[in-house]
Write a structure and sequence with these properties.
This protein is mainly α and about 200 residues long. The chain has one domain. α1 runs antiparallel to α2 and α8 packs antiparallel against α9. It starts with a helix and ends with a helix.
């Protein structure tokens, strides 16, 4: 189903980028749709978990589409996942119409806006969003009453750790400057930011 719909988008636009975006959008949208349909006790925890991941993706994609690729507001909005956790459809439409990094950050929910205050680029946005999501995953692992949500949170957290490890190894194989690697994959970007402000 996802592959068939993604292929249709690719055939219309004939762009590899559109294919990747379509697959990701359909994947996350399908996950949230199935979660909303379930009546199980772990529904709330699953909504929080997947909703947070969708919010992270939408913020990063929106910034890249509007600020890097210079997509129009309507095209950027079309490529986003319609419903997330704290950021829903109406908010996405508003965000897609904004210009500039600061403007987008200023209109995010406070859960994201405050930690992202003062960032200089999208790389720093990704670092802080990853830390926010990692912190939420840790809480769900420890305090969720549902074992499935705790296990899923653990798996996602470990996947994020492995991605960071892969980035470090790749940087070393490419003989990149160690300071550049440290800047790209800090251990705690939000804590470092707060210390600098203090």
């Amino acid at each position: 189903m996802i592959a068939r719909q993604a292929r249709h988008v690719y055939e219309e636009k004939n762009e590899g980028f559109s294919l990747d975006a379509a697959i990701d959008r359909l994947y996350y949208s399908g996950m949230m749709r199935h979660i909303n349909m379930t009546n199980s006790n772990d529904r709330h925890g699953a909504q929080k978990l997947i909703g947070g991941m969708i919010d992270r993706q939408n913020i990063l994609w929106l910034m890249r589409y509007r600020l890097v690729y210079r997509f129009s507001s309507s095209e950027a909005y079309y490529l986003l996942i319609p419903s997330g956790g704290r950021i829903q459809r109406a908010s996405l439409m508003e965000l897609a119409n904004l210009e500039g990094l600061e403007a987008i950050i200023d209109h995010l929910p406070s859960h994201f806006r405050e930690p992202l205050h003062g960032v200089a680029n999208i790389t720093q946005v990704r670092q802080r969003l990853d830390f926010i999501i990692s912190t939420e995953l840790q809480k769900l692992m420890r305090y969720s009453p549902d074992a499935v949500i705790s296990a899923l949170s653990y798996l996602i957290a470990r996947d994020m750790d492995l991605r960071q490890l892969y980035a470090i190894i790749q940087g070393k194989l490419l003989q990149m400057d160690p300071q550049l690697i440290d800047a790209a994959v800090p251990s705690d970007p939000l804590h470092t930011h707060l210390e600098a402000v203090a």
